[in-house]
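Q: Given only this backbone (362 positions), what sequence would you predict?
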């Protein structure tokens, strides 16, 4: 393995100069020194590049396209970004539903973060499915007015409301792809075993995590419970589409990818609300309002990471999440759901943050 620290310009220059007889002038500023210094600089850059290329040869350290190529050798491919589908509502000047044309384009009124949507199909009078023109999770959160990108006579108001019909998701990151690769080689998916159902789920666009329950309702029954790519309960549309992909109507007829005879049911998680209260000692640099929002983010991230991975909400881990916020020096009187013990989760429950009550110690 090449360590670029062993091949710095200074080290390389000294190695080159050591091969020149001492009877010749090789001091800094001499002709020989000045001739070798640029070569040493280029060689140092070359060794650094070689070290980087060496790391791209291994799954553990490869990134980007190099990781894609290595994973592709075993048929593991990076999940592409998914475009969000949202519900758009359109009104005329009398606030009655307005019929727009499929293919029309609208933009969110969101400054530099504006996202363009295209009308895909009508749901009911004045209500349409809109597809984000750019794939990714950024189109999931916006609610509010839309601006038409072309003049539309009679259209007075356009807006996006409600949860996404299909969640947009970002392209799979390197760490997640790498984890799927190692899962693939250690738990070989084949012949409809549990590993293969997990593989089908984790490769399906829009799915983030999954659990498999064999024989959950008798012989030849399989339940696959999924989460969306943001580790939240999957939408009805995603559950329905993945059900059709595996086993339409749970018929076990082999009309999906599941083997003949396997009656597959796709479900998603239910949320268990976790309320948190505590007293915190803050340092002088952290304002109480900032602390509250930072704690909310820290606990929410812990819950998302725990989803479908842990069977409990651990009291001490909630405390650790709070203490991970820079500026919180200590925590006391911590309660989760009015208690100071771990909270059990059923096999298809995920924790979500409810109310946070923080008192600041004087």
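A: Predicted residues:
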């Amino acid at each position: 393995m090449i360590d670029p620290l062993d091949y710095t310009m200074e080290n390389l220059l000294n190695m080159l100069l050591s091969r020149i007889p001492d009877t010749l002038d090789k001091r800094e500023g001499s002709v020989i020194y000045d001739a070798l210094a640029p070569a040493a600089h280029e060689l140092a850059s070359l060794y650094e590049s070689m070290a980087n290329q060496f790391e791209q040869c291994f799954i553990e350290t490869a990134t980007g396209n190099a990781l894609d190529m290595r994973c592709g050798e075993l048929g593991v491919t990076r999940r592409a970004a998914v475009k969000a589908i949202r519900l758009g509502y359109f009104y005329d000047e009398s606030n009655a539903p307005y019929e727009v044309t499929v293919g029309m384009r609208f933009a969110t009124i969101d400054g530099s973060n504006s996202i363009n949507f295209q009308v895909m199909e009508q749901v009911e009078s004045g209500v349409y499915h809109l597809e984000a023109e750019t794939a990714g999770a950024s189109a999931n959160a916006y609610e509010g007015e839309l601006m038409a990108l072309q003049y539309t006579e009679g259209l007075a108001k356009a807006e996006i409301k409600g949860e996404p019909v299909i969640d947009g998701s970002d392209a799979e990151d390197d760490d997640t792809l790498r984890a799927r690769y190692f899962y693939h080689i250690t738990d070989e998916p084949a012949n409809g075993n549990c590993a293969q159902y997990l593989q089908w789920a984790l490769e399906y666009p829009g799915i983030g995590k999954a659990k498999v329950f064999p024989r959950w309702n008798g012989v030849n029954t399989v339940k696959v419970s999924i989460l969306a790519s943001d580790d939240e309960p999957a939408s009805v549309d995603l559950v329905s589409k993945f059900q059709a992909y595996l086993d339409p109507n749970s018929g076990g007829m082999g009309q999906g990818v599941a083997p003949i005879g396997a009656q597959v049911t796709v479900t998603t998680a239910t949320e268990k609300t976790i309320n948190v209260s505590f007293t915190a000692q803050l340092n002088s640099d952290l304002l109480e309002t900032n602390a509250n929002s930072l704690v909310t983010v820290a606990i929410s991230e812990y819950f998302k990471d725990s989803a479908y991975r842990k069977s409990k909400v651990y009291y001490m881990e909630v405390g650790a999440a709070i203490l991970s916020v820079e500026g919180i020096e200590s925590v006391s009187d911590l309660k989760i759901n009015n208690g100071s013990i771990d909270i059990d989760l059923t096999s298809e429950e995920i924790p979500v943050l409810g109310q946070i009550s923080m008192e600041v110690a004087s």
